[in-house]
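Retro notes, item 3 of 5
We never archived the inputs for the manganese (II) ion complex last cycle. Fixing that now. Sequence and ligand:
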Amino acid sequence: MSISVEVPTPTSHSDLAAWVTRIAELTQPDRIEWCDGSEAEWTRLTNLLVEQGTFTRLAKRPNSFYAASDPSDVARVEDRTFICSEREEDAGPTNNWIAPDEMRRTFATLFKGCMRGRTMYVVPFCMGPLGGNISQLGVEITDSPYVVVSMRIMTRMGEDALRLIEERGAARKARESEARANEGRGKHDHEHGDFVKAVHSVGAPLAPGQADVPWPCSQTKYISHFPETREIWSYGSGYGGNALLGKKCYALRIASVMARDEGWLAEHMLILKLTPPQGEARYVAAAFPSACGKTNLAMLQPTIPGWKVETIGDDIAWMRFGPDGRLYAINPEAGFFGVAPGTGRSTNANAIETLWGNSIFTNVALTDDGDVWWEGLTDEPPAHLIDWKGRDWTPDSPEPAAHPNARFTTPAEQCPTIAPEWQDPAGVPISAILFGGRRATAVPLVTESFGWQHGVFLGANVASEKTAAAEGKVGELRRDPFAMLPFCGYNMGDYFAHWLEIGRMTDPEKLPRIYYVNWFRKDANGRFLWPGFGENSRVLKWIVDRLNGVADAVPTPIGNLPASLDTEGLDIAPEDMELLLSVDPEVWREEAALIPPHFETFGDHMPKELWDEYRALVQRLG
Ligand code: GTP
Ligand code: MN
Ligand code: MN
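Structure as it came back at the time:
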């Protein structure tokens, strides 16, 4: 194949130059641009997006934009997400699998000429602080300027990342020639290349003279991952989770495979810093399924006097053992891609403060004076809006003004509670890991695991209820182990085994303690028993006090529960509090009965230790 335009390759990294040329020959763009991540580039591309009608500049927020997607392209497409491992078994029972050869054949046709009439952007990026040991490099090729400007917020993108890729390449070459000189002594470590290759197209080529639409996309969609070669290919969608390939595709699906192979963890977790009135700061990571409160907890404003919460990350954590044997976490991202609806001053004031400028708002509503609005931003909606589908909207309109999955894309450094060490390349030492989901029934406000293996058992059983059932009755559960079900790049049975293995890699005393929390328990009338949000600081306080050995716990069949919780100044009925901290053995026997069918899904890959934990639970329940 050849291409009629010149393919610029302004890099000393020969693999990168060759790959960019290959993709250009396949996709046939009209122009090719290497992105440097500069202010000037941002200005040029955002102006272009305004001109094309993708962006509306917001009069009320400096340097910020409103975008409305095609109504069919509003979320991650799990049924079009594929793990293309060599063996089907390695993708596991919870991932869609297509054989890599077959997938590559499909893509050879699908991507052929798919960037005609468009510009191909080459976007080098770094996940994690530039130059950090835990950080990783990638290059995304995309035909969407919306993706480029979003990547500039969400990752360290441009010139600096490209230099790091080139340095890695040069260092590898030096090692290889030395190894050759020593005739094979000292093996080289480059089998996966110096960066992850990610190709994205909206899948909407333009014929000569054909007008573009504000949000090009295709009805055919593939979000495909090749774990062995550490490649990502995404076709047909412009939505963040499908198109910003540094995020879910790389930082979770591909990174989880790297983490398995290299003895670390890539997790769907927020990271926060908690400082008590006296005493040392602690770092906590927490995994909750999507829309279960990670961004909220990461930016929490404590209601208990003297306690301080600061933010390190709100969605993804990479954790590695440090030289002292403790687990250190970094936030691989540079921005927040958060759910807008429900975010307001009363629920997450720090998120609202973060959004003052330099932000992109997708599928929210537009106000008459050039600002954005969504359900939950203010108590009273404005009298008139343009909704996310571009229609006039008033409070009498039957549909919400913003799409329920409308998102903001905003720089993390603008968060008023961002911790000073959030960019520390060495990461922060994690003292506690929290799991949780939406459970109207059964699950107490907080439970402490008996140890690492029991904690892994709790993580493997993370679930949310599909329907809000009444207290005393276990509802239909959607299991989402470790909140990683949509994001694990390999067999989840093996993933559980990897977590158990991590627990054997250091002194047990140095491992984070594991907790299970539930902000979502309801009474018989369907009312939340726990006020949540800032009041969750009371639970964090108990956890820190436990770590410091100054809080009591009551052992129960499912784990240790607080002997008491600080409820000073909290308006909650004693019987509600009692229910929140209770374990009903009858309900829990039903709950336990739901575990074997879940575990059996993973067949031989299910670690025996977790079956042991299940049997121990049943025994304790009597
Ligand atoms: P992703 O970004 O998609 O991974 O999800 P997330 O885990 O960051 O979810 P997010 O913080 O955006 O979840 C928001 C939803 O959870 C909103 O509907 C909030 O109102 C609700 N929520 C968050 N914290 C609490 C809480 O403590 N109590 C209650 N009742 N609801 C909460
Ligand atoms: Mn998420
Ligand atoms: Mn979030």
